[in-house]
Amino acid sequence: CSLATPLFDGASCTVDIRFAPGSAGPKTASVQVASTGNFPPVLTLTGVGLSGPNPSFAVSETALAFAQTRVGSESLPATVRLTSSGTGVVTVTAMTVTGPYAVSSTTCPALPFMLAAGNECTIAVSFKPNDEGTSAGTLRITTDAAPATRDIALSGSGEAQADVTDGGGCTIGDGTSPLDPTLWLTVLAALAWLWRRERGRHRRAPQVRGRREGTL
Fold first, then answer.
1. Full strand arrangement of the beta sheet holding 120-127
2. Which of these, 174, 181, 190, 206, is most buried using a 10 Å CB contact count?
3. Over the stretch 23-46, which tens digit does the pLDDT of each residue have?
4. DSSP letter, residue 20
5. Cβ contact 17:45 at 8 Å
6. How many alpha carbons lie under 13 Å from residue 23 in its C-beta half-sphere?
């Protein structure tokens, strides 16, 4: 149908109506045709807009707290589960760690990787203190979902290394120091041997004198 073109008796024309929703959800509209003749009834239009793919990303933890760990060693790993929880594919583009922490292992593919809807993978984070005291850090995961970044707070406490230079208790020395227990044990053992030797001599002495007197 062309506007302002007469439509003669018995003739017809066709109007095509298309539905192009700008957002998801139910929609309504109406069509009113105006002419020099009788007005046809109002044509009511209804439709439902469908949403497109909606990627969504979730992490199982928002914070990880590690037990006290000796300086120079490594803690037991803590795991974080990454899940594509929406209706679209999520692309993980980066993972960064700050502080004395490191990603020790993962079941996720190499970066960048995609997680289809309903899929998940895990990463393991370890604490490697360089100094004594509390250390803070952050595990940041960047994706194409909203919000684009997810931060996981990391915390742990470094413990002093074991002092192996002077642990006290029993030690084995070279016997040159007057405080060395090995030296005193050696002296006591020698005195005990000398005492037993002298005691044995005193016990045998009367018997020898008796035998000599009888012989005379």
1. 57-59, 78-84, 120-127, 101-106
2. 181
3. 888 999 999 888 888 878 899 999
4. -
5. yes
6. 3
Identity of the residue numbered 175: G
Residues 102-147: pLDDT tens digits?
998 899 999 999 999 999 999 999 999 999 999 999 999 999 998 9
* The pLDDT of residue 40: 83
What is the amino acid identity at position 206?
Answer: P
Residue 162: pLDDT band (50, 70, 90) is confident
- For residues 125 and 128, what is the distance between their CA atoms, to the nearest angstrom? 10
Tokens of 164: 């192996």
Written as six digits, the tokens of 67 are 């037990």
Q: What would the 3-class secondary structure string for 134-195 be?
A: EEEEEEEEEECCCCCEEEEEEEEEEECCCCCCCCCCCCCCCCCCCCCHHHHHHHHHHHHHHH
The greatest distance separating any two alpha carbons of the chain, rounded to the nearest whole angstrom, comes to 177
- Cα dist. 112→106, 139, 142 in Å? 14, 16, 10
